[in-house]
């Protein structure tokens, strides 16, 4: 049985092209930069924290209030979901078209945690991370405070192998309890929709935040005021919480 030359040539060229495509794909995969491969293997919805590129230990936010610490191939993780003030699950809008009850809290994983590193220091062989976290106050975006942003200050102590040895979470701003940062070291976070969100930072190696909450007696202009502080010179002390003072504003 014989074949026309046109069919033979077409078959030969098809085989050549297929071989070229396969070879090119294999070479492209081999030449893929290591960083790109890491991105490919990154967990879904992972969000690297805002931190200095010189920091030897990296912080990454994951869904549902989890953070991961990494240094080369060494990693550790901390679950902050039970300590953070805000929604660590997925937010939802019950007024949206096509909304279903299955979309309510606890039915879907939340967005990756949004974190900003205030300080990373190593002391006596241990690592100390201090960072702020922003969360939606309400999983229901149409509910009370649904459009706001809560802020927590987090301190974590890590072993050389990045195992969590201790952690502390202090609320800085919380819409539902009407807690606000009255004064703080750092700058205003102009990247947020709300221009007055604090972006905490060190000043002279020290972080200070004054938070205020309405007094429980609901007296107009009366506030419970506390000062939070952290010192880079003594990171093992964690976040120091000052005594409560009741202040009345005229």
Question: What would you note in describing this structure?
Answer:
The structure is a single chain. The protein has 250 residues and is mainly β. The chain has two domains: 1-31; 32-248, no CATH class. The chain is 14% helix and 38% strand. It has two helices and 15 strands. It has helices at residues 5-30, 34-41; strands at residues 47-48, 58-62, 66-71, 74-79, 114-123, 126-135, 150-158, 164-173, 180-184, 186-188, 198-200, 206-214, 222-231, 240-241, 245-248. The strands form four sheets. Strands 9, 12, 13, 14 and 15 form a five-stranded antiparallel β-sheet that branches. It has a four-stranded antiparallel β-sheet with strand order 1-2-3-4, with no helix packed on it. A four-stranded antiparallel β-sheet has the order 5-6-7-8, with no helix packed on it. Strand 2 and strand 3 form a beta hairpin. The N and C termini lie far apart (104 Å).
β-sheet strand percentage: 35-45%
Q: How many DSSP helices? A: 2
Task: Report the helical percentage.
Answer: 10-25%
Q: How can the largest sheet be summarized? A: 5 strands, antiparallel
Assembly state: single chain
Compressed to H and E, one letter per element, the order equals HHEEEEEEEEEEEEEEE
Features:
2 helices; 14% helix; 2 domains; 5-stranded antiparallel sheet; mainly beta; 4-stranded antiparallel sheet; 250 residues
